[in-house]
Write a structure and sequence with these properties.
Glucose Permease (Domain IIA); globular; Immunoglobulin-like; single chain; ten-stranded antiparallel beta sheet; mainly beta; about 10% helix; 2 domains; four-stranded antiparallel beta sheet; about 270 residues
């Protein structure tokens, strides 16, 4: 095992640990913590094939690839590299996390336990979101450092928390909540293409999804106003909307999500959040 120097702009991206594994000829590099819920950036030889578990991942022309670790990942991860007629397999131990319990009261009861007449609506909206997250484009915006979506951001809810809504256990929280006044400008965390822009989804209200390449997407929810449209190419730092309280919400705030395809990741793993 040895450590290589990398471009400083990439090193500063997460302030995390590098892991380098060498075969006799070539290396696989990983940037990130092998921790439940985390985003991992990889680097290999251009033209190599990389398989994470049983899934072959896209490798960019300059050798970058990306993947994510599920919130409840139970097993270590196996990586297979095929390059220049040689096959190399390595295994990385995945560390487990302890998650908080978060209780939220004061929600509309129909947003906690939806009435039957909205089941079909919710089903269709979930399909829209899933479709946007299935995109496997060759964009490589995921390589760049992400920025916080709000100025002077204050976190009020963290990834992975088991949620008790109006006293009823519900799905864990898969994002980060930021406090914000109604109408506060929201900035794009990274360059991307808008793949979903909806003003009134049942749970998430006014919602945006961006594709950053290789299955990495970000989602912004509960917005008041949306300033972009599906298909728009957005630059990092561009104002894309404003903080609101639409959907299932008790007050103005921004909930952001990070996905690798259908795997829900902790946005803190790509942001400068201690």
């Amino acid at each position: 095992m040895c450590i290589r120097d990398r471009d400083s702009s990439v090193i500063n991206r997460f302030f995390l640990i590098f892991f380098f594994f060498f075969s006799t000829a070539n290396a696989i590099e990983f940037q990130g913590k092998f921790l439940q819920g985390h985003f991992i950036l990889g680097k290999t030889n251009p033209g190599a094939k990389i398989i994470v578990g049983k899934k072959e991942v896209r490798v960019s022309k300059d050798g970058f690839f990306v993947f994510g670790i599920d919130r409840d990942q139970k097993y270590d991860l196996t990586f297979t590299k095929i390059f220049d007629g040689k096959k190399t397999t390595i295994t990385k131990k995945v560390l487990k996390r302890k998650y908080n319990i978060q209780r939220i009261d004061g929600l509309e009861e129909k947003k906690v336990t939806p009435p039957e007449e909205v089941y079909e609506r919710i089903k269709n909206e979930n399909k829209l979101i899933a479709k946007a997250r299935e995109i496997n484009s060759d964009l490589d915006f995921f390589k760049d450092k992400f920025i916080l979506p709000l100025e002077n951001a204050i976190i009020t809810g963290v990834y992975g928390s088991q949620r008790i809504l109006n006293g009823k256990p519900r799905w864990p929280h898969y994002g980060i909540d930021f406090a914000g006044d109604l109408g506060t400008p929201i900035k794009a965390m990274a360059d991307g293409i808008v793949t979903l822009a909806e003003n009134d989804l049942y749970f998430t209200g006014a919602t945006l999804i961006f594709d950053h390449g290789h299955g990495i997407s970000t989602l912004y929810m509960h917005l008041d106003e949306i300033f972009v449209e599906k298909g728009d190419i957005v630059k990092q730092g561009e104002v894309i909307g404003t903080v609101g309280s639409s959907g299932r919400s008790t007050g103005p705030h921004l909930d952001v999500r990070l996905n690798w395809f259908g795997t829900r990741l902790d946005p803190a793993s790509v942001l400068d959040i201690n």
